[in-house]
Amino acid sequence: MCTLVSKYNVAGPRYTSYPTVPYWDQDSFSLKLWKESVHRSFHESNDDEGISVYIHLPFCERMCTFCGCTKRITKNHDVEIPYIRSVLKEFHMYVEVMGKKPTIKQIHLGGGTPTFFSPDHLGFLIEGLFKIAYRSEDIEFSFEGHPNNTTREHLTVLAQYGFNRVCYGVQDYNAQVQKAINRVQPFGNVQKATSIARNEGYTSVGHDIIYGLPFQTQADVRNTIEKTITLLSDRIAFYSYAHVPWMKGNGQRGFKDMDLPTPSEKRKQYELGKKMLLNAGYEEIGMDHFALPSDELTKAKHQGTLHRNFMGYNASKTKLMIGLGVSAIGDSWYGFAQNVKSVEEYQDLIAQNIFPVYRGHILTDEDLVIRHHILNLMCRFETHWTEDRWYFPELPNILEKLIEMQKDGLLTIHTNSIIVTEKGKPYVRNICLPFDLRLQRKKPETKLFSMTV
Length: 453
Prior knowledge:
There is one protein chain. This protein has a 9-stranded mixed sheet, sandwiched between helices. A 3-stranded antiparallel sheet has the order 14-15-16, covered by helices on one side. It has a 3-stranded antiparallel sheet with strand order 17-19-18. A hairpin with a 3-residue loop joins strand 14 and strand 15. It folds into 2 domains: 340 residues, tm_1862 like domain (pyruvate-formate lyase- activating enzyme), CATH 3.80.30.20; 77 residues, Arc Repressor Mutant, subunit A. The chain contains 16 helices and 19 strands. It starts with a helix and ends in a 12-residue tail after the last helix. 37% of the residues lie in helices and 21% in strands. It is an alpha/beta fold and 453 residues long. About 1% of the residues have low confidence. It is globular and about 55 Å long.
């Protein structure tokens, strides 16, 4: 195991998109092309499919030093309503591009800390969306909750608008680890927040756990997962800590590099956690994700409908995902667009009726084929090219690069397909790397990605 860890512990993307953000072709991107791709995608989709909406709510009262998200640290809650009004105006601008009232199937509130906002203000936000949109009959509405400040009122109000899934950031229960990452929350808070969500009718309550954190040991991982299992969390995201201080400024320099577990220790933490979760009845859904057999993600995995995008793993796919708020990324399937990262700049552009997009990418025909294969590997641990449209000229060269991984037992190469083995699942990011033609053609000269192990 340690030999494989040292061999495959390289920097690589998490593949929530292809091409990955650092490889977007901004020279050929324009706001006009992005809006055309949104209009095209919306009108190619039927009403039953609907659209997805991701809303980035960036405010936090405290800085968590493990976090790599765009956030604004403040205790001034007067920022809530002005920000929400900007988000609703941005959505109205997108509805005008679509040309008619859309049907929303998925909503995800991310952050930052969505529960920084008051329950009434979150209700105002969701109500504002549905003044100019229909609600799908088959909805997936979710939000990221902070166990320390997610109240019954938050859960009740959002449930009234159809929210049925919440994910709590747990990370680790060891006091020293919590202090190092500036995220102190006792087990009792998580237990209470989980119980209230279930009492309010949430059908899926998830927990995020991170391994590879500063000062974290295998005993800490064992303790955290044992506690999590007692709560029977429906979904568990078991993430590798992404140490990327060169990208996130001082936010990830609250501890020294020497305080982090070694790559081999980190892999042992993962193997221990995975074994415990599988023994407890969870199924491995995709990279870093586990769910109970009764959860919609597990059902989607068996039905072959599991999807992955900037909102993570989803039980179903919509062709169009609108990203609202600072730093939010939209996905029209034919293109990506990311908003500006400053709250002030975002609100100023919206006030001028200007889309707050600052970068993006329009996918080429080749991009669409590669995206298909990488999505298959990330969601199904296999891909195939039995149809001519999924074959591409560079494929033989990619298969040559994968032979070494086949010798290491990470995958099997067949005439028209690749299947990732159980041993290879932890290395799925490495398996995707040869398919990433944009990265292969222009290897990064500086650090862009976290390590795969």
